[in-house]
């Protein structure tokens, strides 16, 4: 399976995604469709970030809508994105290249007197953005993906502001440059022809961001809302700047599956998309790797905690699954064991991520009263990619929904389909069918 993997350790923004995709082999000529529909031009340039050769893509405004800007930004750190209409200058992925030397590519349009499109053009409602995208004459799949991304953005902003999606003003996200970012990324991904997109945990950065409603910690509220809807993980750091924008988060929430580490790939292309800031310790780039996946299971770094218990009550043992999962456990097993003096007891084994081990060990001690928790350096486990899908089954002319868990290898080959027991049991109780019959029908529907 042709796979695109992003390395999210320095976050992501729309312009970084544009640059990474061009650097990984996508043809920037496909962006002409956006330039024909909006008063913007893309400029693709070679830059260097802490010794890493990267591609910067600037979206510049041509002033063709009668709202020409007065000149380029003088922000030394690069343009700051505006989340939910709240201007701030903490963001690290502006459209400036931070003073790096660069050369214009063949996609530069030197004949235009254009300036940065940051916030240029009208700020649109969600409905107006949808109408604009539908009027651009995009390929059907590209249009559908772009609209899905804007729907995610609309839902996130509506949730933050307590409004309805159709009434939500996108502010900066509805401006020309943000639309150029979203539609541009969808066009480049379509051109790249990958079958799957994955990303490692995305760094949000740190510190605070000043908004018109006050000062908020990074990540911004819309980014948090989008992370809730995404398959990937969000992590803080590694610097005290904002690294993940709502546009970048929405694009990856739509396209990317989350992975803990880069999957096994026979690499055919790679590249780096540049962010705006020049940082002292880290190259401000988003790495993209394209290759054929090897059809195996995913490697997941873990460690194993265990303890022996000879005096735990059934109530305590029964609650360990939930309480340890809340602390970060990935799996909990409780096995019967024979203790000293042939007394019956239990062996508790807990699978955790290495970074969660100390916190989970403390919770295990607090819940059980154990005086010691052992850690085994298991290293890793091999896991299937998992997706929970809702399917419909018909019983006596009534339709019921059942959640089904689907296990696949990294090429998407399905080798396990399992209905969620609680859903199947609820339908069984309502219909009078046996639970296993409900499960069988749901699993058959998922395989179709």
TrEMBL record:
<keyword id="KW-0533">Nickel</keyword>
<feature type="region of interest" description="Disordered">
    <location>
        <begin position="65"/>
        <end position="122"/>
    </location>
</feature>
<dbReference type="GO" id="GO:0016829">
    <property type="term" value="F:lyase activity"/>
</dbReference>
<dbReference type="Pfam" id="PF01969">
    <property type="entry name" value="Ni_insertion"/>
</dbReference>
<comment type="similarity">
    <text>Belongs to the LarC family.</text>
</comment>
<dbReference type="GO" id="GO:0016151">
    <property type="term" value="F:nickel cation binding"/>
</dbReference>
<keyword id="KW-0456">Lyase</keyword>
<feature type="compositionally biased region" description="Basic and acidic residues">
    <location>
        <begin position="78"/>
        <end position="117"/>
    </location>
</feature>
<dbReference type="InterPro" id="IPR002822">
    <property type="entry name" value="Ni_insertion"/>
</dbReference>
<protein>
    <recommendedName>
        <fullName>Putative nickel insertion protein</fullName>
    </recommendedName>
</protein>
């Amino acid at each position: 399976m042709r796979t695109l993997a992003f390395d999210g350790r320095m976050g992501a923004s729309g312009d970084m995604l544009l640059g990474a995709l061009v650097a990984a082999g996508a043809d920037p000529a496909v962006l002409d469709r956006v330039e024909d529909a909006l008063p913007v031009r893309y400029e693709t340039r070679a830059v260097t970030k802490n010794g890493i050769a990267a591609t910067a893509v600037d979206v510049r405004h041509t002033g063709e809508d009668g709202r020409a800007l007065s000149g380029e930004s003088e922000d030394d750190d690069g343009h700051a994105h505006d989340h939910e209409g709240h201007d701030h200058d903490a963001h690290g992925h502006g459209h400036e290249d931070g003073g790096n030397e660069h050369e214009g590519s063949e996609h530069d349009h030197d004949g235009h007197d254009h300036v940065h499109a940051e916030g240029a053009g009208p700020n649109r409602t969600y409905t107006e953005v949808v109408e604009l995208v539908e009027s651009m004459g995009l390929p059907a799949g590209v249009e559908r993906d772009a609209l899905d991304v804007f729907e995610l953005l609309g839902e996130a902003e509506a949730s933050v502001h307590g409004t309805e999606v159709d009434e939500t003003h996108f502010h900066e996200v509805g401006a020309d440059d943000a639309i150029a970012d979203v539609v541009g990324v969808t066009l480049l991904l379509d051109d790249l022809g990958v079958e799957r997109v994955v990303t490692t945990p995305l760094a949000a950065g740190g510190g605070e961001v000043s908004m018109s409603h006050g000062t908020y910690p990074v990540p911004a509220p819309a980014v948090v809302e989008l992370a809730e809807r995404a398959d990937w993980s969000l992590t803080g750091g590694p610097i005290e700047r904002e690294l993940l924008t709502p546009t970048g988060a929405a694009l990856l929430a739509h396209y990317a599956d989350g992975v803990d580490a880069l999957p096994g790939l026979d690499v055919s292309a790679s590249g780096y998309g540049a962010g705006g800031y020049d940082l002292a310790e880290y190259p401000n780039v988003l790495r993209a790797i394209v290759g054929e996946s090897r059809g195996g299971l995913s490697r997941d770094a873990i460690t194993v905690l265990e303890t022996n218990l000879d005096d735990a009550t059934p109530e305590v043992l029964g609650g360990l699954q939930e309480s340890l999962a809340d602390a970060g456990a990935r799996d909990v097993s409780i096995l019967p064991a024979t203790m000293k003096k042939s007394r019956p007891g239990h062996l508790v084994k807990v699978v955790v991520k290495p970074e969660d081990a100390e916190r989970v060990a403390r919770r295990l001690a607090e819940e059980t009263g154990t005086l010691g928790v052992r850690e085994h350096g298991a290293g890793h486990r091999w896991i299937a990619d998992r997706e929970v899908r809702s399917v419909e089954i018909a019983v006596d002319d009534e339709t019921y929904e059942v959640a089904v868990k689907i296990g696949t290898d990294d090429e998407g080959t399905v080798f396990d389909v399992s209905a969620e027991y609680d859903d199947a049991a609820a339908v069984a109780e309502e219909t009078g069918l046996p639970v296993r019959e409900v499960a069988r029908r749901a699993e058959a529907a998922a395989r179709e």
